[in-house]
User: What shape does this take?
Amino acid sequence: MNSKFVVLLLVAILFAGNIPLHTAFAQFQQGGVNKEGSWYVGEGLKQGDYFSYSFCHVDYEECSPLQIDFWIKGDRTVGSEEKWLAEAVVYDGAFVLKGDMEMGKVAPEPSGGSENLTPYRAAFKSSIAWLSAYATADIGISGKGPREFKAVSWGKIANIGGEQILPTSIETIKVKGGTFETVKLTWKTGGAVNKVWIVDGFPFPVKASTFTHVAEGIPPAEYIFELLSYKENITSDPFTNVKEVLPKKAKEGCSKNYELTSIKKPSKDFKYLVEIKYGPKNPATGCSIEWFISFKNKFNQEEFLNQVQYDILVVDDNLKPKRSIAQEEGKNFLYSASGQVRTFTIVDESPGTARYVIWIYGTSPDYIVPPLDELDYLPIDITISGEQTISPPKTTVQIPDWIKNNAKWWADGQIDDNSFVQGIQFLIKEGIMKIPSTTQGSGSDSNEIPSWIRNNAGWWADGAITDNDFVQGIQFLIQNGIMRIS
Assistant: This one.
C-alpha cells in the first residue's frame, strides 16, 4: 500500500474518532443548478399585474381548497413604509369575498388590509409568499437578499429539524396559467419531499406541493398551490362585476362567555370514537355554536384518525337531513386531515330540541370516496333557546408589545410548543398577562397545541387580531388542560 495513502488514512481516522460518519455526512445536503442568475419573492412585481391562484394551507380548515385572484392596483403609504396595494377576491366554496391587501415591497407578504380577508391573507403569506422568509429584495439584511440558482442551499427549515431548501433541477412544467421553465426547490419533511417551482423574473412561485412534519403515518399537506392565470398592464379594476356571497353571521348580542359541554362516545355502529366539546349548551336561534370535534381510533383513545371525511347535519326524527353544513359551504363533505376540528355553525332551528348529527363518511384523501362500510354517525340533541343572551363587556386585555416577539417566533417554528407554553405560564403567574377567570380542564400530560392556536399567535403578532382574541385561545389551552396554571 502506498505510504502516502496510509498516512492520509491514519489522519482521517484520527480526526474522525468515534463520530459516526453516516451522521456527519447526513448533515450536509448539496443542491444548485446550472443556471446563471438569482431570484427572490416579488422579483419583477409591478403595478397592473394580475394573478389567479388555486391554493390551500393547513392552518385554514386543514388545507381546504380556495382560489385567490389579486390585482396590483398601486401604492399605499403605511406609516413611513411604501407598500403595494392589491385588490383581491377569494372564492371559498360557496362564498365570494372581496377586499384589499397591503403587501411589502421588500418582501410582498400581505400584512394588512380588509378585515374580512384576514385568514386568507395569513394563508397566502404562509404558502404563496412563504419563500420571502429566505429570499427578498433587500441585500442589506444578513441572511436575506436574492438567492442564486447555483447556490448549494437557500437556508434551513427551522421547524422540521433543519432540513435545507435546495435548488434541485431545471424543469419545464405546465400549469393552468401557462408553460414555464422553472427551477425546482426541494426539501424533506420526514419521508416526504416538498417541492416548489419558481421562474426567473416572475414574482411568485407557479406551483407547490408540501407536507406537514409527522413522526409516523402519512404526512398531510401543509400547502398546495398552482398559478391559474397571469396578466400584465391591467389598468382598471377586474373585479367590478364580481358579486360578494357572504357566509351567515351570528346576530348581535349572542353570548360569547360560556362553558363547553363535553361528549365522548362511540359512533352508532362502534366504528369510531368521537369526542365533542360545544358551546353554549343552549344556543339561541341566530347565534353560533362553537364545535371542537376529535375523531379517534376506537381501539386507542390517544390516536387521532387522519383524513376524515365528515359532515354536520341537522335531521328529523327519521334521520332525514334538514341541513348539511358542508352543502351550505358549497362542498360535498367537510374534511379534517388531522382528525381534530374547530368550527362554528349558525343556529337556524326554532326554539326546542334540535337533533344534530356528526356524520362520518370514512377516512380517505379528499379526492377519493371512502368505502361505504366505513360510514357511521353520532346523534346529539341540543336544546335551542328562544332568548338571546347579551354578553357582558369584554375584559380589556393589556399585553406588553415585546411578548409578540415570542408569539411570532413560535408561530414561525423558531421555538417549540413547550417553550411557548412555559413562557405564557410565567407571564400569567407574574401577573404580566391578565386573562378573565377560566375553568382549568384536566387534559393530559401532553403540551401539544392545536394548529389554529399557532395560527392565532401569528395573526396576533402581525396585528391582524386583537389581544382579546389571542387571550381566548390561551383560555382554550387552560380549559382543555394543555396549559396548567398553579
The two ends are 70 Å apart (CA to CA).
